[in-house]
Amino acid sequence: xxVCEDLRIAGMTILSHKAESAGRKLIAVNPAGxxxxxxxxxxxxKENRTTQAEFWCTACGHEAHADVNAAINIxxxxxxxxxxxxx
Length: 87
Ligand SMILES: [Zn+2]
Hints:
Elements: E1 2-5, H1 10-21, E2 26-29, E3 54-56, E4 63-65, H2 66-86
Parallel strand pairs: 1-2
Antiparallel strand pairs: 3-4
The chain binds zinc ion (ZN).
């Protein structure tokens, strides 16, 4: 399974076909807020994003590379979508 941001670009179609031909399922999630939301406590604020590369949660103090933090949020959203589809 591959979970990624749903960016509504031509590349998404190619990625979707590639995933399918490799026997993988592609789940696209809404990217809104993924880069500003804390992967630990869920606090969403633009102040959490101190620089382009760094994430620092103003609520719980969680620190991470901004892309890593966003990737965790995207994965979690994808897994939630999959659970919803399976139910
Ligand atoms: Zn937090």
